[in-house]
Amino acid sequence: MQNILSSLKEILEEENLTYQELLGSSKEKKRILLESRKPDELATLVAREEELVEELRKKEEGRVELLGELALKWQVKEGDLNLDKVVELAPIDFKGEFERIREELKGSIGQIQRINRTNTRLIRASLVTINHILRSVLREEKNSVYQKKGEWQKGGKAFLLDRKV
Questions:
Q1: Does position 128 have pLDDT exceeding 70, yes or no?
Q2: What is the DSSP-derived secondary structure letter of residue 75?
Q3: Handedness of CA 15, 21, 25, 30 (dihedral sign)
Q4: Domain that includes residue 8, residue range
Q5: Number of structural domains, the chain?
Q6: CB within 8 A of 68, min separation 6: which ones?
Q7: 11, 63 in Cβ contact below 8 A?
Q8: Which residue from 84, 71, 73, 77 is spatially nearest to 12, judged by alpha carbons?
Q9: What is the average pLDDT value for the chain, to the nearest integer?
C-alpha cells in the first residue's frame, strides 16, 4: 500500500510540474499574442505544448493504473476514486501531501483555463481583424488595379492608396 501511495504521489508531483510548465507556456502565448510577435514563435510554443500534453497523457495512464490498484485495496469503485477521495482515504502520513498536491493542481489547472480563454479571445479578435483586412483588400474584381493578364487596367482604382484613413 505504501509503495502504491508513494508512486501515486510521485506521478501527481510530476503532473503538477508539467502543468506548471504548461501554465508558463500559456502565459508566454498570451504575451506573444498581445505583442503580435512572429507566427513562428507561436508555432514553436504550440508544438512544445503538444509535447507537454503528450507527457501528461502518459503520466495520466500511470496514475489511472495506480488508482485502480488503490480502489481494489480500499474496496472502492475505480470510477469513484479521484484525488479528493484519495485525500479522504489516505493514511495520515500521506494525507497532507496529497492535499497540497491537490490544491496546487487545482490552482495550476484553473489558471491555465483562464489564460486559455483569454488567448482564445485574442486569437478570435486577430482573426476578425485579419478577415476585415482581407475583405477590404480583396474587394470585387472591378476594383482591381491589374487585369487577369497582369496588365495595368486603365481607369482602375488603387483603393488601398486612394482611401483616406
A1: yes
A2: T
A3: positive
A4: 2-162
A5: 1
A6: 78
A7: yes
A8: 84
A9: 85
Task: Write out pLDDT tens, residues 51-95.
Answer: 999 999 999 999 999 999 999 999 999 888 999 999 999 999 999
Residue 73 near residue 4, CB atoms below 8 Å: yes
* Beta strand residue intervals within 24-103, DSSP E: none
Residue-wise pLDDT for 150-160, tens only, equals 555 555 554 55
Task: Find cell 498536491 and name the residue.
Answer: 101
Dist CA 42 CA 45 (whole Å): 5
Residue 141: CATH number of its domain: 1.20.58
- The answer to whether the Cα torsion of 110, 108, 97, 79 is positive or negative is positive
Q: Identify whether the C-beta of residue 4 lies closer than 8 Å to the C-beta of residue 68.
A: no
Distance CA 64, CA 28 (A): 31
What pTM value is reported for the model? 0.73
> Given this model, what pLDDT does residue 14 score?
96
